[in-house]
Amino acid sequence: DVKVTQSSRYLVKRTGEKVFLECVQDMDHENMFWYRQDPGLGLRLIYFSYDVKMKEKGDIPEGYSVSREKKERFSLILESASTNQTSMYLCASVTWTGRGYTFGSGTRLTVV
Amino acid sequence: AQKITQTQPGMFVQEKEAVTLDCTYDTSDQSYGLFWYKQPSSGEMIFLIYQGSYDEQNATEGRYSLNFQKARKSANLVISASQLGDSAMYFCAMREGRGLTGGGNKLTFGTGTQLKVEL
Question: Nearest CB to B103: which of A56, A103, A108?
Fold first, then answer.
Protein backbone atom coordinates (compact mmCIF):
# COMPACT_ATOMS: atom_id res chain seq x y z
CA ASP A 1 0.00 0.00 0.00
CA VAL A 2 1.05 3.54 -0.72
CA LYS A 3 1.91 5.36 2.43
CA VAL A 4 1.98 9.06 3.10
CA THR A 5 3.48 9.81 6.47
CA GLN A 6 3.19 13.09 8.30
CA SER A 7 5.80 13.50 11.00
CA SER A 8 3.54 14.78 13.78
CA ARG A 9 -0.07 14.07 14.66
CA TYR A 10 -0.40 16.96 17.11
CA LEU A 11 1.76 20.06 17.41
CA VAL A 12 1.59 23.10 19.67
CA LYS A 13 3.70 26.11 18.75
CA ARG A 14 4.03 29.70 19.91
CA THR A 15 3.15 32.76 17.88
CA GLY A 16 6.14 33.89 15.84
CA GLU A 17 7.87 30.52 15.78
CA LYS A 18 9.07 28.99 12.52
CA VAL A 19 7.23 25.71 12.05
CA PHE A 20 8.10 22.79 9.79
CA LEU A 21 5.53 20.16 8.83
CA GLU A 22 7.04 17.16 7.10
CA CYS A 23 5.45 14.74 4.68
CA VAL A 24 7.03 11.63 3.16
CA GLN A 25 5.57 9.26 0.57
CA ASP A 26 6.96 5.91 -0.44
CA MET A 27 5.53 5.32 -3.91
CA ASP A 28 7.61 7.56 -6.14
CA HIS A 29 4.71 9.94 -6.83
CA GLU A 30 5.55 13.06 -8.78
CA ASN A 31 2.77 15.20 -7.34
CA MET A 32 2.47 16.22 -3.71
CA PHE A 33 0.08 18.63 -2.01
CA TRP A 34 -0.50 20.48 1.23
CA TYR A 35 -4.06 21.25 2.30
CA ARG A 36 -5.48 22.86 5.38
CA GLN A 37 -8.85 21.81 6.75
CA ASP A 38 -11.11 24.07 8.77
CA PRO A 39 -14.70 23.42 9.90
CA GLY A 40 -17.22 24.61 7.33
CA LEU A 41 -14.52 25.37 4.76
CA GLY A 42 -13.52 21.91 3.60
CA LEU A 43 -9.97 21.34 2.44
CA ARG A 44 -8.15 24.25 0.85
CA LEU A 45 -4.97 23.89 -1.17
CA ILE A 46 -1.96 25.76 0.18
CA TYR A 47 0.85 24.64 -2.15
CA PHE A 48 1.64 21.77 -4.43
CA SER A 49 4.66 20.34 -6.17
CA TYR A 50 4.82 18.32 -9.37
CA ASP A 51 8.55 17.58 -9.33
CA VAL A 52 11.64 18.00 -7.22
CA LYS A 53 12.31 21.69 -6.57
CA MET A 54 9.12 22.62 -8.46
CA LYS A 55 6.29 24.26 -6.56
CA GLU A 56 3.18 26.23 -7.26
CA LYS A 57 0.87 28.26 -5.09
CA GLY A 58 -2.54 26.93 -4.31
CA ASP A 59 -5.54 28.94 -3.18
CA ILE A 60 -4.24 30.14 0.20
CA PRO A 61 -0.42 30.37 0.11
CA GLU A 62 -0.05 33.50 2.24
CA GLY A 63 2.05 32.91 5.34
CA TYR A 64 3.38 29.57 4.06
CA SER A 65 6.26 28.30 2.00
CA VAL A 66 7.29 24.82 0.88
CA SER A 67 10.37 22.82 0.09
CA ARG A 68 10.85 19.75 -2.07
CA GLU A 69 14.50 18.78 -2.23
CA LYS A 70 13.82 15.05 -2.70
CA LYS A 71 11.00 13.38 -4.57
CA GLU A 72 9.63 11.59 -1.54
CA ARG A 73 9.57 14.55 0.86
CA PHE A 74 7.45 17.69 0.79
CA SER A 75 7.75 20.15 3.65
CA LEU A 76 5.37 22.93 4.62
CA ILE A 77 6.93 25.89 6.41
CA LEU A 78 5.16 28.49 8.48
CA GLU A 79 7.70 31.30 8.51
CA SER A 80 6.21 33.04 11.53
CA ALA A 81 3.30 31.12 13.02
CA SER A 82 0.15 33.04 13.85
CA THR A 83 -2.98 32.00 15.71
CA ASN A 84 -5.04 32.03 12.50
CA GLN A 85 -2.86 29.19 11.24
CA THR A 86 -4.28 26.90 13.92
CA SER A 87 -5.77 24.14 11.78
CA MET A 88 -5.58 20.55 10.56
CA TYR A 89 -2.94 20.15 7.84
CA LEU A 90 -3.18 17.28 5.38
CA CYS A 91 -0.53 16.14 2.93
CA ALA A 92 -1.38 14.12 -0.17
CA SER A 93 0.39 12.57 -3.11
CA VAL A 94 -0.87 11.20 -6.41
CA THR A 95 0.30 9.21 -9.38
CA TRP A 96 0.81 10.92 -12.71
CA THR A 97 -2.58 9.56 -13.83
CA GLY A 98 -4.34 11.81 -11.35
CA ARG A 99 -6.49 9.07 -9.90
CA GLY A 100 -4.68 7.44 -7.00
CA TYR A 101 -4.61 10.19 -4.38
CA THR A 102 -3.36 9.14 -0.97
CA PHE A 103 -3.56 11.31 2.12
CA GLY A 104 -1.50 11.38 5.27
CA SER A 105 -3.22 11.11 8.63
CA GLY A 106 -2.98 14.86 9.23
CA THR A 107 -1.23 17.18 11.66
CA ARG A 108 -3.37 19.16 14.04
CA LEU A 109 -1.44 22.36 14.67
CA THR A 110 -2.32 24.73 17.48
CA VAL A 111 -0.60 28.12 17.60
CA VAL A 112 -0.82 29.83 20.98
CA ALA B 1 -17.28 31.09 -7.54
CA GLN B 2 -17.43 27.76 -5.76
CA LYS B 3 -16.16 24.96 -7.92
CA ILE B 4 -17.61 22.21 -5.74
CA THR B 5 -20.84 22.78 -3.83
CA GLN B 6 -22.17 20.52 -1.12
CA THR B 7 -25.39 22.03 0.15
CA GLN B 8 -26.05 19.63 3.02
CA PRO B 9 -23.89 20.47 6.04
CA GLY B 10 -25.49 17.61 8.01
CA MET B 11 -27.64 14.56 7.25
CA PHE B 12 -29.29 11.86 9.31
CA VAL B 13 -30.23 8.41 8.04
CA GLN B 14 -31.63 5.31 9.68
CA GLU B 15 -29.52 2.20 9.68
CA LYS B 16 -30.11 -0.03 6.62
CA GLU B 17 -31.66 2.79 4.60
CA ALA B 18 -30.14 4.41 1.54
CA VAL B 19 -28.91 8.00 1.60
CA THR B 20 -27.90 10.46 -1.12
CA LEU B 21 -25.27 13.12 -0.54
CA ASP B 22 -25.44 15.97 -3.01
CA CYS B 23 -22.57 17.47 -4.96
CA THR B 24 -22.59 19.93 -7.84
CA TYR B 25 -19.52 21.18 -9.64
CA ASP B 26 -18.49 23.93 -11.98
CA THR B 27 -15.86 23.57 -14.68
CA SER B 28 -15.32 24.53 -18.28
CA ASP B 29 -12.95 21.63 -18.90
CA GLN B 30 -14.17 18.72 -20.98
CA SER B 31 -11.93 16.28 -19.17
CA TYR B 32 -12.13 16.10 -15.39
CA GLY B 33 -12.45 13.65 -12.55
CA LEU B 34 -14.81 13.54 -9.60
CA PHE B 35 -14.02 11.92 -6.28
CA TRP B 36 -15.75 11.17 -3.00
CA TYR B 37 -13.82 10.81 0.25
CA LYS B 38 -14.93 9.73 3.71
CA GLN B 39 -13.34 11.25 6.80
CA PRO B 40 -14.20 9.53 10.10
CA SER B 41 -13.55 11.24 13.41
CA SER B 42 -10.01 9.84 13.37
CA GLY B 43 -9.23 12.33 10.59
CA GLU B 44 -7.94 10.03 7.87
CA MET B 45 -9.19 10.62 4.32
CA ILE B 46 -10.56 7.43 2.81
CA PHE B 47 -11.09 7.26 -0.95
CA LEU B 48 -14.55 5.92 -1.83
CA ILE B 49 -15.27 6.30 -5.52
CA TYR B 50 -14.10 7.97 -8.74
CA GLN B 51 -15.95 9.09 -11.88
CA GLY B 52 -14.20 10.31 -15.00
CA SER B 53 -15.98 12.87 -17.15
CA TYR B 54 -15.89 10.56 -20.15
CA ASP B 55 -17.12 7.50 -18.25
CA GLU B 56 -20.55 6.64 -19.60
CA GLN B 57 -21.54 4.35 -16.77
CA ASN B 58 -22.08 5.56 -13.23
CA ALA B 59 -19.26 4.39 -10.98
CA THR B 60 -20.02 1.82 -8.30
CA GLU B 61 -17.88 0.44 -5.46
CA GLY B 62 -19.71 -1.98 -3.20
CA ARG B 63 -22.40 -0.04 -1.33
CA TYR B 64 -21.31 3.24 -2.90
CA SER B 65 -22.49 4.52 -6.24
CA LEU B 66 -22.03 7.85 -7.92
CA ASN B 67 -25.05 9.31 -9.68
CA PHE B 68 -23.31 11.27 -12.44
CA GLN B 69 -25.48 13.73 -14.36
CA LYS B 70 -23.10 15.55 -16.65
CA ALA B 71 -25.54 18.05 -18.12
CA ARG B 72 -26.63 19.11 -14.66
CA LYS B 73 -23.03 19.03 -13.39
CA SER B 74 -23.95 16.90 -10.45
CA ALA B 75 -22.14 13.93 -8.89
CA ASN B 76 -24.21 12.70 -5.99
CA LEU B 77 -22.99 9.89 -3.76
CA VAL B 78 -25.50 7.17 -2.94
CA ILE B 79 -24.82 4.91 0.03
CA SER B 80 -27.07 1.88 0.11
CA ALA B 81 -27.94 -0.05 3.29
CA SER B 82 -26.35 2.46 5.69
CA GLN B 83 -24.32 1.13 8.59
CA LEU B 84 -23.35 2.77 11.88
CA GLY B 85 -19.76 2.82 10.65
CA ASP B 86 -20.79 5.11 7.79
CA SER B 87 -21.14 8.00 10.24
CA ALA B 88 -18.45 10.43 9.09
CA MET B 89 -17.76 13.58 7.12
CA TYR B 90 -18.02 13.11 3.35
CA PHE B 91 -16.21 15.28 0.83
CA CYS B 92 -16.79 15.66 -2.88
CA ALA B 93 -13.74 16.73 -4.89
CA MET B 94 -12.85 17.50 -8.50
CA ARG B 95 -9.68 17.27 -10.52
CA GLU B 96 -9.89 19.53 -13.57
CA GLY B 97 -8.05 18.52 -16.71
CA ARG B 98 -6.59 15.18 -17.64
CA GLY B 99 -4.28 14.76 -14.72
CA LEU B 100 -0.78 13.87 -15.94
CA THR B 101 1.97 16.19 -14.80
CA GLY B 102 2.12 19.79 -13.79
CA GLY B 103 -0.76 21.47 -12.10
CA GLY B 104 -3.32 19.21 -13.67
CA ASN B 105 -3.64 17.06 -10.59
CA LYS B 106 -4.95 19.56 -8.10
CA LEU B 107 -8.04 18.44 -6.22
CA THR B 108 -10.64 21.03 -5.25
CA PHE B 109 -12.90 20.05 -2.37
CA GLY B 110 -16.39 20.94 -1.27
CA THR B 111 -17.16 21.95 2.30
CA GLY B 112 -18.36 18.47 3.24
CA THR B 113 -21.48 16.76 4.58
CA GLN B 114 -21.55 15.31 8.09
CA LEU B 115 -23.54 12.07 7.95
CA LYS B 116 -24.96 10.47 11.07
CA VAL B 117 -26.40 6.96 10.89
CA GLU B 118 -28.96 6.20 13.59
CA LEU B 119 -30.37 2.94 14.92
Answer: A56
